[in-house]
Amino acid sequence: MHAITLDGFGGPEKMRWTEVPDLHPGRGEVRIRTTAVGVNRADLLQRQGFYPPPAGASEILGLECSGVIDEIGEGVEDWQIGDQAVALLSGGGYAEQVVVPAGQAIRPPTGIDLISAAGLIEVAATVLSNLDRVHLNSGEWFLVHGGAGGIGTFAIQYARALGAHVATTASAAKLAHCRKLGAEIVIDYSDDWLTQLMMATSDRGVDVILDIIGAKYLADNLSALRDDGRLVIIGMQKGTKAELNIAKLLNKRGTITATSLRGRPAAQKAAICQQVAERVWPMVASGQIGLAPETRVPLPDAEEAHRLLASGDIIGKVILTA
C-alpha cells in the first residue's frame, strides 16, 4: 500500500507519498480500505514533532477515516467484508489501508457519503465526550473558540441541539457562518473578545467553555466563567504554560479540566464511538446537525491540505480523498 510518511519533522514539505508494507488486522481488529481521511490540527502538530502518537500506535498521521472493511480479525462478529465504516484512530489514517479496533469503527450516518463522513467522527467524538464531561445543560450559555473550524462548526450545532445558548469567537470574515449555524453571540477574536462577551451577556459570562487555544486564553477564559462555570481545554494552539489565578477560581467555584481523546484506552474510545452512533448520527441524518463546509484534497497531496488548514483561510473541514 501507499501512505504519507514523514522525512523528519518540520513543514508540510516533509511529507512523502511512499510505499509501505500492507497491514493485516489482529484479534478484535478490522482493516479498512480507505475512502477518505479527515485532517485535524493535531496532524499539523505531529508533523512538526509536537504531538507524538501514543505508545504502540501508528506513526503515520491521521486520526479519523472512512472506507470499506476488507479484512476482519479473529473474534470480530459485528462486521462483514464490504461494510462501510468510519473510524476513530490513534494514528495511521493517511494511508490506503487502516487497521483499527473493531469498537472504534461505526457505520456512517444514514444518507451521508463516505467522503463527508470521514470528517465527522473525530469532531463528534471530541465534542460529545467533552460536553458530557462538563455536563452542559439546556438553558446554559456555552462558548466555543474557533467557531468556524471543524470542532467549532459541530460544537455550535450540537450545543444548540442540547438546548444551550451559544457564543463563539472567530475571524471577522467567518462570523456570518457561525451565526447561520445558530450562535447567538459572535465575536471577532482579533478584538478584545472578553470585553465583548461580557457586554453581550450583561457581565454574566458563560457556564461552559470549550477551548482549543490553550495557555494564551486561560486567564480570559477564567474571567468569562460564571459562578460554578466549567472550562474544558482540548487544544494548545497558543501555548502550553500559563499562570492560574487560584483565588478567582475558588471564588467562582469553577472547574478547569483538560482532555485528549487520542490517548484514551480503546474501551473508552469504543464507548464514545457507540454514543456518537446512538446520539449524534440521528441528528446528522435528520439535518439537525449540518455538515461543515469541505475542502477536498487528494491523499497524495496531503502537503497542500496542511498548508490550507494552517493558513486559517478556510471554513469547516479539510478532507483527503483516496
From TrEMBL:
Keywords of the record: NADP, Oxidoreductase
Domain Enoyl reductase (ER): 10-320
An example molecular function term from Gene Ontology annotations: zinc ion binding
UniProt-listed Pfam families: ADH_N, ADH_zinc_N
InterPro entries per UniProt: ADH-like_C, ADH-like_N, ER, GroES-like_sf, NAD(P)-bd_dom_sf, Quin_OxRdtase/zeta-crystal_CS, Quinone_OxRdtase_PIG3
Domain of life: Bacteria
CDD domains tied to this protein: p53_inducible_oxidoreductase (cd05276)
PROSITE patterns referenced in this protein's UniProt entry, alphabetically: QOR_ZETA_CRYSTAL
Name of the protein described by the UniProt record: NAD(P)H-quinone oxidoreductase
Provenance organism: Brooklawnia propionicigenes
